[in-house]
Amino acid sequence: MHVCKNDLVAVMSGNEAGKTGKVIKVLREKNRVILKGIKLVYKHTKPSQINPQGGRIQKEASISIANVLPICQNKNCEKNGKGVRTKKKILENGNKLRVCVNCGSEIISAE
Ligand SMILES: [Zn+2]
User: Fold this and answer.
1) How far, in Å, from the CA of 20 to the mean position of ligand 1?
2) In this predicted model, what pLDDT tens digit does every residue of 46-83 receive, in sequence order?
3) With bands split at pLDDT 50, 70 and 90, how would you rate the model's confidence at 111?
4) Quick one: which of 2, 15, 49, 90 has the fewest CB in 10 Å?
5) Which CATH number fits domain 8-100: 3.50.50.60, 2.30.30.30, 3.40.50.720, 1.10.510.10?
């Protein structure tokens, strides 16, 4: 997986191309992700205690993980703020990092 929960990602293709958002869920089995505030759809709900009227609520729909790339947050990188391809870097202690292929800086999740 090239993106993880809480990553800031850019949508590279599809109807939402050009938008950026935070990953709130990765659906590994389906190869899809849900991004905060992206691809909002209306869901119809039955009346419940919280929402006694029922009706429509807005909710994020998933998009293909292949359509998103993590954003490089290195201010000195020419791709700063844009979606970048990543590569794995293995540290001496065995930990793996995802780094921007352009500048080599670590891709850091928002939280
Ligand atoms: Zn970079």
Assistant:
1) 16
2) 888 887 888 888 999 999 999 999 999 999 999 999 99
3) low
4) 49
5) 2.30.30.30
CA of 41 to the centre of ligand 1 (A): 32
- Helices and strands: H and E segment counts in the chain: 0, 9
Distance from the CA of 97 to the center of ligand 1, in angstroms?
14
Work out the percent of the chain whose per-residue pLDDT is above 70: 99
Q: What is the pLDDT of residue 110?
A: 72
Distance CA 46, CA 24 (A): 25
Distance 94 CA to ligand 1 centre (A): 22
Are the C-beta atoms of residues 38 and 22 closer than 8 Å to each other?
no
- CA–CA dist 45, 105 (Å, integer): 44
**How do the domains of the chain map onto residue ranges?**
8-100
